[in-house]
Amino acid sequence: MPAIITERRSYVAGTWVDGDGAFGVENPADETTVAEVGTTPLAEVERAIVEARRSFDAGVWADLPAADRAKILGVFLDHLAANGPALVATMVAEAGQPVAFAERAQLASGLGLGRDTIALYLSMRHEEASPVPVDELVRGRLALSVRRHEPVGVVSAITPYNGAIIMAFQKVIPALMAGNSVILRPSPLTPISSLAFGAAAEAAGLPPGVLSVVVEEGAAGAELLTTHPAVDMVSFTGSTAVGRRILAQAAPTVKRVALELGGKSAQIYLPDAVEKVAAGAMQVVAMTAGQACVAATRMVVPADRKDEVVAAVSRAYGALKVGPPADPSALMGPVINAAARDRCERLIAAAEKNGGTVAVGGGRPAGLDRGYYVEPTVLDVPDNGNPAAQEEIFGPVLAVLGYRDLDDAVRIANDSEYGLSGQVYGADVAAATAVARRLRTGAVNVNTAVFSAYAPSGGYKQSGLGRERGPDGVRAFQEVKHIAIGELR
Description:
single chain, 489 residues, alpha/beta, Aldehyde Dehydrogenase, Chain A, domain 2, 2 domains, six-stranded mixed sheet, 16 helices, 22 strands
């Protein structure tokens, strides 16, 4: 593997800032220290906010024509692409992700997402005349009613460990393209890769203050980014528990908050698609070790074929190679740290205590004495009240449930505090789509999946607020202003 990114400092308002301390970033594959990274002094986090406010209010970025912003962001993306090998090596080291996942699902998808987001923004209308009834035109002496989409202002972008780079692309590019100033704060578990965004900002010549990247071990800086009165919006991806705290922190200053939170998504198989369960099960754990908020960790199948399904999925998981990212034959790596592994083990035990059965897995893989590995696990659970069917495990654990009929399948899928994503498989596409329409979730994939700058993502219920990607994801970083124009009389 190439060497990882060498930068260890934060990037604040156009300058690289030494830390007032350092913390170690752990490699979850072998428990070694990847590197010591400087902790951004809290005063420098505040300076990032103040300079973001200054740059936005001065219009040094927001007032540029959209085509000029697009050109600069193109250079920004080109710089990241040119440094791709080091960026991939860094993601592999700090997150324990297989090389193929870091290369394709994070870097290549992120770059494509960034370029397509720029094209999408340029294709959208950001100022347009609004229709007005004739009587209002006459009575109000109104000549023109204009709806204008303007940048929100200063945006705090707080990203998770499981998809640090793809989530940074998903937040930073639309926010910058819309004219905002942004402070990026990555997870303390995987901070090094995000420093590449600071280097790209410097290489592209973004005006000072338009993009800062701040790194910390704790949460003091993140709390400042969610409470400071100069911040207009917080965009966060992570757990529902942290999302609730961010809502509370943002409330006193009535910030806009966009949250993509936890999930407990269901994959429903119509009777004519049960033979697809092994492939669907692999999507949950391969490459990500189940560490994806959209992972469909509840498999909902016809009750009279449940034993057949459990056997098929168990065979697939039993054959899946688990190992370090350096092993090209390994399809699944570790979870992020000891706490994540402990959570998996605790919830597997809770599932068994409540009537579930471990069909395969449930422990730690043999021969992997170092690193935070969990065996791909299939749980045969009796009902949707089982802890494995209700709680987000965020690990390679799949719960299999049986349904009586499609009404029951929909009931099971919707019986959750979450509603982020879902899947429906059926040879009868019309029937499968009819089921999809009944699911209370932000996205549903019927026999396929799509990740695109043109398709939105986001959650119902406690899976979040707002949308990312697609036109809705662009609008999330904009305010709407109405301008009524008339003649002076």
